[in-house]
Amino acid sequence: MIEGSTITRTAQMALRLSSVNKWCVTGTPIVNDLFGLFLFLDYDPYSVNFWWKTLVYTPFCRGDIKILENLLGLFFTPIEEHFYRRQHVDSSKEIVARIRRLQNHNLKLSELDRNTIGTILRPMLKLRQSCCHPQVNTVECEESHRAHISSLNGLAGLHIINEEWKKAVEVYREVLRLVVEYEEKNQNGYSSVASHINKFIRDSRCKA
User: What are the residue boundaries of the SNF2 N-terminal domain, all occurrences included (predicted)?
Assistant: First the structure.
């Protein structure tokens, strides 16, 4: 992409490309080029300058940041939400621990040397990698997924011990739903398994 600019020849050429799907990546902070990105994506109505200014830009300049948060918000599956929350908590704790090791806590960030700043912010690398390249931490995500499934199976077992059959079925159905979601998302050759599980979930005889 061309930094979202709408006036350069390269940007004009990119806007003329016909396509079915579009995506864009920016490696720099977005300042005044956010509209250019929506224009390239042809994301109606925000790709129209009038509506962009009316619905987003002007309210944002007046201090209403909610509209921009809603526009750029991401929706996570329960597994993704658990994974990213855990990454955030772990990284935050490690950063706080590193800051506490500093002898002088009254120093400004601009007064710290490059090595010290790098040491403090190193835990953020894992969080950034998780956001930009989830596959980097796939193993940990899979372990969290297995642990979550195991906990649900244990919960269902407790319901069975207490003869709470309806609750046990509901928990098991949630387990099956998570398995199907995982297999479909990874598309790793278990489509037939996911298909059979989907049939089981839809089977009226298995309803609680």
Answer: 8-74
Full residue range of the structural domain in which residue 111 is found? 78-132
Does residue 196 sit in the same domain as residue 181? yes
Q: What are the two backbone dihedrals, phi and then psi, of residue 32, each rounded to the nearest 5 degrees?
A: -115, 10
The reply to whether 49 and 63 lie within a common domain is yes
Assess contact for 200 and 175: CB atoms under 8 A.
no
The structure's pTM equals 0.36
Q: Is residue 1 part of a domain?
A: no
Q: What is the pLDDT of residues 162-185, one digit of tens each?
A: 989 888 888 888 888 888 877 776
* Each residue's pLDDT tens digit, 15-44: 777 878 887 776 655 656 777 788 888 888
Give how far Cα 94 sits from Cα of 1, 46, 82, 129, 130, Å.
36, 39, 18, 16, 16
- The rounded distance, in Å, linking the Cα atoms of 186 and 189 is 9
Domain count, the chain: 3
Q: Is the model's pLDDT at 203 over the cut of 60?
A: no
